[in-house]
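U., I forgot to send this yesterday:
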Amino acid sequence: ERMHMDSKFVDGLRVTDKETAEVVQMVLAGKVNKSLVCQIGNLGGHAIGLCGLDGNMLKCRPVDDVHGYVGEITEINMEVVEEAISKNFIPVISTVAQGIDAPCCYNINADTVAAAVAGALQAEALISMTDVVGLLRDKNDESSLIHRVYISDTPALIADGIIGGGMIPKIDSMTEALRRGVKKAFIID
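Result:
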């Protein structure tokens, strides 16, 4: 049975009600996570499926009153991820987390989680895969790709509308990862 969910976005983040949050948890931590683990296995890798609930990896609070069950990270515990890595597993992390306000599960923006994990692990690089070639000066012209952006460039790019919509949380997350010690961040198609 196919399920259709209408999406509403505010500031590049999906608005999520309780019912949708439960479906997101089921789909991300179940089907999508295990599919990625399987694909990595088929390529010869050894992956393990995790989610932000496992080992109290991620705790969060609601982003605001508008987004519903969308969380922002308040605590991050990399113990289970570090253990998986030490055993040569590739952790595949679904972006759901425990709320600190109630026994509720929240959806967290995937870019936010990736950046927080990369920063906590002091990763060499954060690679964000998306459905566009990267940050474009003109969103309708792939030849206008901006090849290098410095953190100091981002406020002007946002003010000029070059960074907008879903690219805002992506760039914000990458900036946060760099500030936490990640050496470089990349956006690839």
